């Protein structure tokens, strides 16, 4: 994902709802939500499937928050929000 911003970006002010369910509940054990929520603040590379049979798109950053259907990352002062249901691979450093 290209950053077309020609400024010294800082973390933007964005209203992100609190984490919704308890991701350690029986229905979430072993899910992407539980894995990502347990690693908030860690650097990750996510591979997202944009279309059903299309190419994967990579996004990288520190995990900022995890919701029921999204994950948000911080990268170079930008917050990236991705559909958690499109997530195919996660690479942690």
Short overview:
The chain is mainly β and 93 residues long.
- Sheet with most strands: 5 strands, antiparallel
Strand element count: 5
Uncertain stretches: 1-7
Question: Could you give the order of the helices and strands?
Answer: HEEEEE
Strand neighbour order, sheet with most strands: 4-3-2-1-5
Strand content: 35-45%
Instruction: Note the total helix count.
Output: 1
- Rounded radius of gyration (Å): 14 Å
Coarse structural class: mainly beta
CA distance, first residue to last residue? 20 Å
CATH architecture of the domain at 32-92: Roll
CATH domain class name of the domain at 32-92: Mainly Beta
Tell me, briefly, the overall form.
Answer: globular
Mean pLDDT: 83
CATH topology of the domain at 32-92: SH3 type barrels
Helical content band? under 10%
How would you describe what is shown here?
It is built from 1 helix and 5 strands, in the order αβββββ. The protein has a domain at 32-92: SH3 type barrels. The chain is 6% helix and 39% strand. Mean pLDDT is 83; it is low at 1-7. It has one helix spanning 32-37; strands at residues 43-49, 56-66, 70-75, 78-83, 87-92. The chain has a 5-stranded antiparallel β-sheet with strand order 4-3-2-1-5. With 93 residues, it is mainly beta. β2 and β3 form a beta hairpin. The longest helix is centred in the middle third of the chain and has 6 residues, at 32-37. It is globular.
């Amino acid at each position: 994902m290209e950053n077309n911003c020609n400024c010294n970006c800082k973390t933007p002010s964005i209203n992100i709802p609190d984490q919704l369910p308890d991701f350690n509940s029986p229905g979430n054990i072993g899910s992407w939500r539980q894995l990502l929520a347990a690693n908030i603040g860690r650097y990750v590379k996510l591979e997202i499937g944009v279309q059903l049979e299309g190419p994967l798109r990579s996004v990288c950053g520190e995990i900022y928050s995890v919701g029921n259907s999204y994950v948000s990352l911080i990268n170079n002062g930008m917050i990236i929000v991705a559909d958690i249901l499109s997530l195919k691979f996660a690479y942690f450093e």
